[in-house]
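Ticket reopened. Same input as before:
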Amino acid sequence: MRCTLATPTVNTPASETREDPPASENKNIPVKQSLHYKLVITLYRVFAITVLYLVLAGIISYAFVMGFYAVNSSWAAPIILSAADEKSLDFRQKLVASQQSIEDLKVDTKKLDSGLAEMKKHRAALLALEPELQRAIVREQTHNRTTGPELATLDRQKQADNLKTQKVLAQLKGVESNITKDLASGLITQGDAATQLAALNQAKGAYTDSKIAEVLLTDSVLDKTTTGTNSLDVLVKQAELRSEVAQLDVALNVAEKQLQEEARQIDRLRQAIQTAKQSPYYLNASGEKTLYFAFIPYDNQASAVAGSPIYDCYLNMVACRKVGTLKQIYAGEETSIHPIFKTQIRGFLVQMNLDHAESAKSKTVFLGSKPVLF
Amino acid sequence: MAPILLWLILVLCLLISAVKYLMGMILKFSFASTKVQKDYAYQPTVSVLMPCYNEGRTVYETIESIGKSNYPNHKFEVIAQDDCSVDDSYDWMLKAQHDFTNIRVRTGRNEVNSGKARSVCNALQHSTAEIIISIDSDCIFHPDAIRELTACFAEPGIGSVGGRVGVRNPNDSVITAIQTVVYYSAFQLYKIPENWTRSICCISGCLFAIRRELLLEIEPAIRARNWFGIPVNQGEDRFLTHQTLLRGYGTYINNDALCWTKVPNTLPVLFKQQLRWRRSIVRDFFFTLRTLPQHVWKLHPNTVFTLVLTPLGAVVGFLVVITMLTSDPLAWAGPVPLITALGVGAVLTWAIKKYSAKEAVTHPLAFGAYVAWSLVSSLFLTPLALCTMDSADWGTRTKPHEVHLGNTNR
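Engineering reply: fixed in the latest deploy. New output:
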């Protein structure tokens, strides 16, 4: 553009003579563009415009994708689980460990069962002894109650008799000296004296026997009327018997509880294994068929309905096609990385029936309906 | 592999920037050799060249502020060159010429719209002074600016000296607040290591002093600047600084030579300005790469690093941002970048308030928005600059009713 009021540079004050523009001021000679340069510039401009439009399209697409995934609540992220997957292996390992635990518990249970039966038999035998013992004690006590007083009476009689006998024997001391005197004086023969002395000794012996019988009788009375060591022994035996039974009761109780606990544990493990067998990781690790899973964040839970169609889309949102249905929803919580925002999110896994195996490799699929109109 | 390489280059660029800021702080307070030995007794004749395009009344205020310089009036003149403004800028020039009779003001007008660089060259034809100071027509100058600039030329090896550009409108908006912090840190820290080796890589065109014989030597190159036949009229300050260095002269920023400019206060204007600057950086980068052996041979390693890695950081930054947005898009929205920006902003706004109260930013939290700007800057400016290298549009001074002037004479 040519400047209408172009003037050369002038000095101040204005009255000074205007200078002619120096020759160099008109040096703005346009640089001649060679054909080669023109071609380069044209190519550059075409390239630049293309690049800028691509950048613009990229930025708009990026912004749209970000916005889309911020509001969309029907997407799911397919996951390909391999048998060698760390989680699957871990799951399988735990499953085997659980099954081993069940087997161990079963062996324990059997041992406990047989021990329990043995203890019960022993207890029954002990319990059968108890009434026998009790009856013997009662019998003995009843007998003692009857014979005890009789013996006591007899003992008193015996003592009285012995007392009388003792007095008689005291009188016999003079008889003995008389016999000796009679013999010495020849009043009696030696035979008579011997016979008389023998009779005397016999009487003394009888007294001694009677005294012994008295002591024995007193002992018997004591045995019959008071609690003796024999009775205590019997009582100790009774107490031991009862104690043994009580110990058996405790052991039985513990064994029964342990048995119940182990039974419960086996149940729990069986349930856990049952649940685990429904886990995608188990199914994936044990199944021969390829299974397809997808992660669904909790925000999109409402879209996860068994049987609902699954769509796979180009550019993660457009030109969608139905690729299968949702087969099963698994309850366990899973965490995963958001396929777009790359943040950690919580959700759950579902199993998909896919007609197009390739869709398992898509970044996202959509549940229920196409996310946009096409 | 490629992303790792990108990250490595970016980390290297950022590391060099961080080291430069750190070195700036150390050198600023510890090494006297960072500063030139100024000689205020050295008072050469000075021509202040003021190219102008659509600045309106501001031109008058700029000349007025120059007129108040603490420099012998007989030793300097103002040569105002209008670049075919479509507004009343030229009238204001004439009015200034009429009003400020204490100094010599010369005015002129280009025959055709030629761009800033060629306007400076046109104005240069009328100068006979020993030192040429090129200024922006929208700046206000400190009375000591000329004195401070010329005093640096006492050091013989110095070819070009720049001044510090302060912000006149720091609190117009968040955008101006961010720029205030960036300008301040750039002049007070980032450029200090370059000052140490007398190798500033870009002296701001707002206040650019150069020895006359050196400018005359470079002038043909300025006039001949073209990109596949399309004249280049942007980034003359970077080009001049670069040429000064390649001719074996030193370059220096004297932070005591102050001028004040109004920075863009709206996003579109800022974007256009930054795009223009980014184009200059990219163009300069290509030039450096094309003549790399010459650079390595002639220049201080610090200068080569700055000339190569600063623009490379901008180019790689674009790729890194793309990688981040696709791999971890919410990282930008995370707290780390924001907290970092707020922390840096808080320290720098405190420093500005303490050492340059005139530029004090009233909303220190405004610098947090730098995170968003850095994203826009990395993502849009570099590819746009790379794809519009043929543009000669200045961008920020074109009037709405005006036809595009950039390449009209080509």
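Helices of chain A lie at 35-71, 86-185, 190-225, 229-277, 280-286. The longest strand of chain A covers residues 318-337. Please confirm and we'll close it.
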